Amino acid sequence: MQLVSGHLAAELVRVQMNKRAQAEQSPRALRRLDDDSEGGMPQSAVRQPAPAGDTESAPIFVIDDDDMVRDYVRLLLELDGRTVEAYTCSEAFLAAYRPGRNGCLVIDLHMPGMSGIELLERLAADGHRLPAIMITAAVM
């Protein structure tokens, strides 16, 4: 499990704290992240999107009860050429997940119902060991 850090974490916190952000703000934020002259992400760290027909890339499962965060993470990943499936809660992911399917989880730590940790425990108990990145807006 990894914790989100650096530019993405800072941007997610900014989005989380500004619930009234307009959709048109997202492209500006992404340009800012890509602009090294303003302290953004260095160009060498920016991955080029995968070809449209790339069937070998496993999906990234984004699970977050916060619509804004979930949609923003999905946007960032899709702009990077990733295949993304987004779910509003752990239970919705479990209902849709097919055993044996590859992928990576991006999970909110604190959600109503089954938490991110409880989801990982459930998957492990069922023999599914997907890589996971845990995110949270909670101050720890």
Summary keywords:
37% helix, five-stranded parallel β-sheet, 140 residues, 5 helices, alpha/beta, 5 strands
Question: Briefly, what is this?
Answer:
With 140 residues, the chain is an alpha/beta fold. Helix content is 37%, strand content 14%.
**Residue-averaged pLDDT:** 74
**Secondary-structure class:** alpha/beta
The string of secondary-structure elements, in order, is: EHHEHEHEHE
Radius of gyration from the CA trace? Answer: 15 Å
**How many runs of DSSP E, i.e. beta strands?**
5
Question: How is the main sheet built?
Answer: 5 strands, parallel
Strand order of the largest sheet: 1-5-4-2-3
Distance between the termini: 16 Å
Total of helices: 5
- State the shape: globular
List low-pLDDT spans.
1-6, 12-50
**What fraction, in percent, of the residue positions are helical?**
25-40%
What share of residues are in beta strands? 5-15%
